[in-house]
Amino acid sequence: MDTDAEKEEALKKQSGLYRMLIDTCLKQGSGSDPTNKEESWQLMNEAYLLVTKHGKKYPETEVVWLTTRAWNVGVNLFVADHVVEAEHWCAFALRIVGQLDVYKESYEKRMNNIYQEIIEKKDLVLSRRMKRTVV
Fold first, then answer.
1. Which residue of 19, 47, 54, 92 sits 20 to 30 Å from the alpha carbon of 71, by its own alpha carbon?
2. Are 51 and 63 in contact (CB under 8 A)?
3. Residue 24: other Cβ atoms inside 10 A
């Protein structure tokens, strides 16, 4: 039977493998192209499920990495004017940040301020698209 230390070490290795897989997937193609992000999105969600399943046992540095990586993908998409996809990734980052302990408060404050800008622009873009389809 595995000891707690062995389980913790296995989880640490698994989280590191997810990091490498996600990073490799995100390096393929353009950072501002939303079409090449599906595999990364799936891996991020799998890693997030592990985070929620294991709670505080999941390495916090890996949770920070997941948060910042998802957030940076969202910001890159936002800058490239893919606001709907940007909101998707940034909302996910905000969900992940909720799992943090030490860094939660400082990350959450800064991210929420920027997220409001993204939401406002997304709403504007969507309303313009609706007007074009009506005309």
1. 54
2. yes
3. 12
